[in-house]
Design a protein that fits this description.
Length: 101
């Protein structure tokens, strides 16, 4: 159990300022918490247009935005869990995205 989260997790990341912690699970659900008090401050599922995923990571973009990425078959896809917005089209990137910064 991580800050009240249950189920299998996959990757975690701290925000650059160390104030938030985000985690992505095997289903693509992403949650993030305040490190100071353990309070969940956000969550989101994978976008509906991404049917089956192999989650590979989660991180923070400028402004504290949480971004997750996964492999859909052999294609890399990134999305913003708070809005459900797909940031990259699920075409064109073949192979594994191991990490982003």
């Amino acid at each position: 159990t991580l800050l009240g989260r249950t189920g299998q997790g996959y990757r975690v990341a701290f925000s650059p300022d160390g104030k938030l912690l985000a985690a992505v699970g095997t289903t693509g659900r992403v949650e993030w918490w305040s490190v100071a008090d353990g309070r969940r401050v956000g969550s989101g599922d994978r976008p509906a247009d991404i049917p089956q995923i192999d989650p590979l990571g989660v991180g923070f973009a400028p402004g504290g935005r949480v971004v997750a990425w996964a492999r859909v078959e052999s294609v890399g896809v990134a999305w913003e869990p708070a809005t459900g917005k797909t940031l990259t089209p699920p075409v064109g990137q073949y192979g594994t995205i191991g990490d982003v910064a």
